[in-house]
Amino acid sequence: MELLVAALLRAMGYKARVTGRGPDRGRDVIASPDGLGFQQPRIIGEVKHRRDTIGAPQIRSFLGGLRAGDQGLYVSTGGYTREARYEADRASNPITLVDLDELASLVVEHYERFDSEGRSLVPLTRVYWPAS
User: Fold this and answer.
1) Residue 122 — very low, low, confident or very high, per pLDDT cuts 50/70/90?
2) Which domains does the chain show, CATH number per domain?
């Protein structure tokens, strides 16, 4: 899932990398225009692939790991509680919450610019449907 989010960010024009395994301190994906994190925006991504919704404590924990100038991207296939969305809305660092439906929409929208690694993760074929 982290690889898919990194591929999506690359398709959106960023240079993105997945952090290594182990204690990542809420940093599964790091993206920026230069790929090193020196140019803004520096996007720190957390990816959770599970059925359970993410609550406010997880969002607060993630926000606590962001530095000044960082922008957060939290992807959860299980969605978010109302309280989690409230925490994200009032955060001092900009944070975007992406659920499974929005992730699917973003992949479809930017798929034409996916690199070969991203396309191998989600092999899609464009189908043309005649207008009636």
Assistant:
1) very high
2) 2-120 (3.40.1350.10)
The terminus-to-terminus CA distance of the chain in angstroms comes to: 38
- The three-state secondary structure class of 83 is helix
Backbone angles phi, psi at 110, to 5 degrees: -105, 5
* Token pair 């591929």 in the structure block, residue: 7
Tokens of 98: 């992406």
CA-to-CA separations, 40 to 78, 105, 111, 124, in angstroms, rounded? 29, 25, 24, 32
Closest CA to 71 of 32, 30, 42, 33: 42
Predicted pLDDT at 94? 94
> At CA 49, angle to CA 43 and CA 52, rounded to 5?
115
Spatial distance between the Cα atoms of 6 and 8, rounded to a whole number of angstroms: 5
